[in-house]
Amino acid sequence: MKHLFYLLLFSILLVSCNEKSVVINDSAGRLNDILVVIDNESWDSQIGDSIRAVLARPIDGIVREEPMFSLNQVKPQSFEGMLKKSRNYLFIQRSDSAGVSIRKDKYARPQLGVIVRGANAADISRVLSENADEIITVFNDSEVAEKQRLISKVKLNTDQITERFGIKINVPTAYRYAKVEDPDFTWLRRDIVEGTMDIMIYEVPLKEITRDSAVVNDIVRVRDSVGGMKIPVDDGIFQTEPAFSPFVNETEIDGKFAFETKGTWEAKNKFMAGPFVNYAVYNKEKNNWLIIEGFVSAPNAEQRNYLFELEAILKSIEFAKP
Fold this sequence. Notes:
There is one protein chain. This protein has 322 residues and is α+β, with helices and mostly antiparallel strands. The protein folds into two domains: 135 residues, no CATH class; 167 residues, Protein Transport Mog1p, Chain A (3-Layer(aba) Sandwich), CATH 3.40.1000. Helix content is 29%, strand content 33%.
């Protein structure tokens, strides 16, 4: 036993003396915040401009510009203590080799670090630009996973959604069923100080949305016809804002092909509008499209984090096994 004790003590001392080893603690930081580790001069120059162009770009669908991520800068020498526990960080590193690498749970858990390397300002800016979409995706996916983890602790009973549509979805208990009498349409609502956050779920035949250049028109037509009929608006009509064409991308939900659409909704003839995120998911088993959408009505508030919560909820769906 004495030999085992000294062996354990020696192992602990080795870890303590190893500068590369760290004690893993819970990470800290608000959702969609990124700590940028870069010297002050570079932050105020071309490199900083490139970082902001990638990570602080405006969010699709929000009329009043809001950044995709909130950025906080710190000098490399100050990246110590509590700052090393930041859940997300971008580290700019001068190096002869240019590229991007990912660090997970290096100083805390859960934690995501993205290291961008380059020999000079032009090199680093080029790397940021060429890998912009991948960098955004890795940070966004990490934040969605964290939000879903938090939601899983306080879930609403969604058995009736599972029974009707054959899907499981994680929704916080802050939401309520706004419409239950319609078997073909589910409407969930969360009341917030500034307004409401809403989710609607329904299905449409496969022919309603075609996978070609006209897809954006199909999606707008479907959401306007269903939303206009199912979402009541006093003296108005719920529809897609006609002045702003939505952004449509191809993606996957639970391994199934889907169209992701982000845009702005409005209540026609009313001073009401806000952002929405819509997923049209191809369900091969039913040979139709499952439509899941979240939209925000909070005209006097910042809407990024509300829209992000809806995205995390919608991306949590899992189809029941056939």
